[in-house]
Amino acid sequence: MTHAQAAWCGACASGAVDQATRRLFVTNWDSNTVSVVASDTGQVVRTVHAGRRPLAVAVDARVGHAFVANAYDNTVSMLDARSGRVTADPKSRAMMRR
User: d(Cα 3, Cα 6) in Å, to the nearest integer?
Assistant: First the structure.
């Protein structure tokens, strides 16, 4: 990652690519967000709120979701890989009911 690319993500902790959508999911530790980046253009498509201090992200292309580990909440946020939107908010415990 070059300095110019790092400017939009602040203190990045982790990134993962969804091969199906060709999107990069990047955790932004300082802002408690995840940036969704079009890998072919490098443009930020969306930035969404995660839990407190998102530390790591992993993508499961089989189910079409990105999973974000939030260090200070001890929670996992789930994002839809196509839309980039949060589908399970760790505060609502929605994932635990599925």
Answer: 5
Structure tokens at 16: 């993962």
Q: In what order do the strands lie in the sheet with 44-49?
A: 12-18, 23-28, 33-38, 44-49
For the chain (98 residues), the mean pLDDT of every run of 10, in chain order, is: 42 83 93 94 94 93 93 92 82 48
Closest CA to 24 of 14, 51, 32: 14
Q: Helix, strand, coil shares of the chain as percentages rounded to 5?
A: 10, 50, 45
Instruction: Judge contact between 50 and 70, C-beta under 8 A.
Output: yes
**Average pLDDT in the chain:** 82
Tokens representing residue 66 in the block: 């990105």
What is the CATH number that goes with domain 3-97?
2.120.10.30
